[in-house]
Amino acid sequence: MSEVYAVRRARLRECCNAVGSTAALVSRPANVRYLAGAAPEGAVLLLGSTEDVLLCAAPPDDRSPQTRPDDSLRLHVTAGAGADPAVAAAGLAVAQGVDSLAVEEHHLTVTRHREIHAAAPKLRLAGVAGAVEQLRVVKDEEEISCLRIGAEIADQALGELLESILVGRTERHLALELERRLVDHGADGPAFPTSVATGPNAGRPGHRPTDRRVEEGDFLSVCLGATYRGYRCEIGRTFVIGTAPADWQIELYDLVFSAQRAGRESLVPGTACRDVDRAARHVLDSAGYAEALPVRTGHGVGLEIDEDPQLTPAAMGKLDACVPVTVEPGVHLPGRGGVRIDDTLVVRPEADGGPELLTITTKELLAL
Amino acid sequence: MSEVYAVRRARLRECCNAVGSTAALVSRPANVRYLAGAAPEGAVLLLGSTEDVLLCAAPPDDRSPQTRPDDSLRLHVTAGAGADPAVAAAGLAVAQGVDSLAVEEHHLTVTRHREIHAAAPKLRLAGVAGAVEQLRVVKDEEEISCLRIGAEIADQALGELLESILVGRTERHLALELERRLVDHGADGPAFPTSVATGPNAGRPGHRPTDRRVEEGDFLSVCLGATYRGYRCEIGRTFVIGTAPADWQIELYDLVFSAQRAGRESLVPGTACRDVDRAARHVLDSAGYAEALPVRTGHGVGLEIDEDPQLTPAAMGKLDACVPVTVEPGVHLPGRGGVRIDDTLVVRPEADGGPELLTITTKELLAL
């Protein structure tokens, strides 16, 4: 694995050289993990002119492969409380003869940036402006494999929940049970706070579980994901509680299903991100739900649950192969509830069979 | 309650005026919540020259008192994706005739600070340098009451766990069960990721639960906390699994217990923070454990689990009455395990009975 990280660091070094910096300081945790194989709390990575160094405030916990940094990195533990590894990294850069250090201005606070400058006043601080995030967009097969296993775990947890009695249980309890099942099946943990929404709450994006209990006739929408070896996926489904859904529930469900399918089917390399959004949004717009729509219909996933690309009306850029994204349109009708259907898929060329669906739980409208 | 928030904002306004700013932009979520009563995701608070405005990227969820902002604030929803409420706040400040805006430089990133400046180039951006954090150190009785209830919840969750069979269960499962019990008893959620550590892991500060199972003869150390109405407390205890602890376990436990008691007993208004640390540390130092000690023996708690004051050898400042802190010395012996005892207490004058212990689970060495 060590080689993977070295190759990633070489690519970042090229980006930095192109803007005139001979070294870079990476501080955003997901970026540190991407380039170093692990991100101990507070650790920063110095891509130096003579060697790469992972700086930590305390010795990293290296008992598991997931938390053990890449062997080819030198490890530097900054001593004592309050010693900021980023400030120490600036000192190391100067000692290596670096005169311009690229830093993550979108992650460093103003105060921390000033402390780095104060510790090494002759060092010019440049910006790397999301360079690592851009490298992270297209995944290798090892990364996709982690997402695939995470999706299997989420599918299993959701499948087991559906076999249990739901009426009378609270949103909070169902969410906790799902998170327990994720861990039971081997997840590092939930990829984000599990959302369970019943009745009038159903279909609300990012709904935080309440003490409302599941009732007969409710819509029940669930959104969860597993983290597996650091990679985060997402699945969302909506069900009906009781023997038979009402007509308005079937109509709304079919509509959101069509919108989600349109989004999924447009996931082809070379498609503009905004066109994926438009494909899904158009279906809902045409049915008169323009006002009820969220600002986006999907986003990239990986070491973070919300990465580039963004699937929004104003998004720039096109989809590449091997980019995992969510497609998650929904409609929420205040006071009545709503529907949300959310999959994680990987963009693949048509010759390879088109988009690869990672979250395979059925999208039929189940009455539970 | 509305008055409480208005008073807090008036105090911050005084701090800003003292440094020559007529307005302030608060962006750190816990600070926004402290001053506005709620912190919807991404929201910022403008303390303006003519009115105070809470700016959010999406309409806040105001169905529960915990997420409903203070009524006396004007609410401003910035439209569309990517519209940063902080940038919008700078525009509002200019419209109010503000020429100098104090911002939280320890929270704003370099990029965001630059965007605010670009949107309002004539506005001078000053720093407020932890001013809200300082206001937050001394709690009112309403805040302490939330911490007290949170501590009761954590005590209950821990007490129930102790009554169950522990041998053979994994650290991960025990941690998840504790978190479920916290929510069962009315917590908003865990105050921080619950730590359960067995055998050689016991006593490691911040240990992340693994798949190791509890065995006879183990030390078992547990650290958990509840969030109640936003306020976070902490309790840590160490137990022995089996009928009788070994001699080394009893000795180590007694030592850490003495250190923790020394720390607790020194919590008197006017005591230097470093002297609390020294009181606890001295006991362990004298017994030859100087090397094994963590960098601090306690810290403040409140809307965040780690607030000022810090109880470290180099800490500046003195304790005030009504400041809640943890006292949590511990010793970890690599390969053997260790002991950690952690309470949340409120500093009170001796005339009021001295430090108020919020986490009341026994600190006797229980053999489970």
UniProtKB/TrEMBL annotation, chains A, B:
Residues 190-212 are annotated as: Disordered. Residues 146-348 form the Peptidase M24 domain. Residues 8-138 form the Creatinase N-terminal domain. InterPro entries: Creatin/AminoP/Spt16_N, Creatinase/aminopeptidase-like, Creatinase_N, Pept_M24, Peptidase_M24B. It comes from the Bacteria. SUPFAM superfamilies: Creatinase/aminopeptidase, Creatinase/prolidase N-terminal domain. CDD domains: APP-like (cd01092). This is Peptidase.
